[in-house]
Amino acid sequence: xxxxxxxxxxxxxxxxxxxxxxxxxxxxxxxxxxxxxxxxxxxxxxxxxxxxxxxxxxxxxxxxxxxxxxxxxxxxxxxxxxxxxxxxxxxxxxxxxxxxxxxxxxxxxxxxxxxxxxxxxxxxxxxxxxxxxxxxxxxxxxxxxxxxxxxxxxxxxxxxxxxxxxxxxxxxxxxxxxxxxxxxxxxxxxxxxxxxxxxxxxxxxxxxxxxxxxxxxxxxxxxxxxx
Length: 227
Fold this sequence. Notes:
Blueprint: E1 23-28, E2 30-34, E3 38-42, E4 46-49, E5 61-65, E6 69-72, E7 76-77, E8 80-87, E9 94-104, E10 108-118, H1 122-125, E11 130-137, E12 165-166, E13 172-173, H2 174-179, E14 183-184, E15 192-199, H3 208-211, E16 217-226
Parallel strand pairs: 4-16
Antiparallel strand pairs: 1-2, 1-8, 2-3, 2-16, 5-6, 5-9, 6-7, 9-15, 10-14, 10-16, 11-12, 11-13, 11-15
């Protein structure tokens, strides 16, 4: 997938009707979109604080990613992980990465990742596109400048070592993968990298009337809880 800051619109150069479909995919630190135009975005952040009853102490927590999104004591909308236009049958799979960090006076007690599908082409595309692989790796570090996109979806800094932990069922349709969440991230650790690979339309998807100029979005939300 190509990197980008905004979801792409319907692509040009649509093949002859009846031969193949064309779509576009975009992803933001928060959401991914795919139409026969697939657009998406990753990382709509939320951060919540939980305190035991009858206590007067307070704590702060800030969740950030290297796409510029933040939640907690500060917020920012972030930018798209990537945009992919003109997906066709047998299109190559697209991979993008995002790094997550959190800090503050509170102790992190839980971290989950959930996905929500949307877009005008959701019904047509959610069972055609696949989350070929979704993993996270707690090795390495993540460089983050608050409110600033410092990564653009690149996987250059995704750890070469360490252990990749799978997120949900690999190779599942976007529909079933999104429905399987929220996914718990074991022992929430800051400086964690996430990698997502989405594959395009299957070879048999040749109905242009059904798939051409469609858009689907995948919004990814990390929720951090702290005490």
